[in-house]
Design brief:
With 157 residues, this protein is mostly helical. It has helices at 17-32, 49-69, 94-109, 118-142, 144-152; strands at 3-4, 14-15.
Length: 157
């Protein structure tokens, strides 16, 4: 897992969201091995491919939008722009939303109800550790323009 320290964040190390996603994915795999009943049953579990594929596509497309806008994807770096078009018209956090969908899809593929808990846990973690700070940074940098965007677009969906 990648940890990073940053003078702006008082030397605290933090795990980046992709590393947190991999940890949540490992949790999904481990939880699927626990005896908690299988749901959905085969072959219905293959419907998990839908949220998995959609989630990964969503996260990658949102990342490409950041790159095209010339603003960094890495959390807590100085933003160059408020990306408010494309996927960002419907969600302020489509990258994180995509990773959550991918976790749901993986849990469904593995037929594990228990593994589904990793998705809301990851959502809570990124909300608490990243989104709240990122929103403060964007508000400081872009002021009223960012506040107006927040009024138009929900945080998740």
């Amino acid at each position: 897992m990648e940890a990073r320290t940053d003078a702006k964040h008082r030397g605290r190390a933090y795990v980046l969201p992709p590393a947190g996603f991999l940890a949540a994915l490992a949790t999904v795999a481990a939880a699927s091995a626990l005896p908690a009943g299988e749901w959905p049953a085969q072959p219905w579990n293959f419907l998990g491919l839908v949220p998995l594929g959609l989630g990964l596509a969503l996260a990658m497309a949102a990342e490409r939008q950041f790159v095209r806008a010339g603003t960094p994807v890495r959390p807590f770096t100085e933003p160059a722009a408020v990306v408010s078009d494309g996927l960002f018209r419907w969600s302020r956090n489509p990258m994180y939303l995509g990773l959550i969908l991918a976790l749901v899809g993986t849990a469904l593929l593995l037929s594990s109800v228990l593994a589904l808990l990793a998705a809301p846990a990851y959502g809570w973690w990124v909300q608490r550790r990243f989104i709240a700070r990122e929103e403060r940074l964007l508000e400081e940098r872009f002021g009223d323009a960012y506040r107006a965007y927040c009024l138009r677009v929900r945080r998740w969906v």
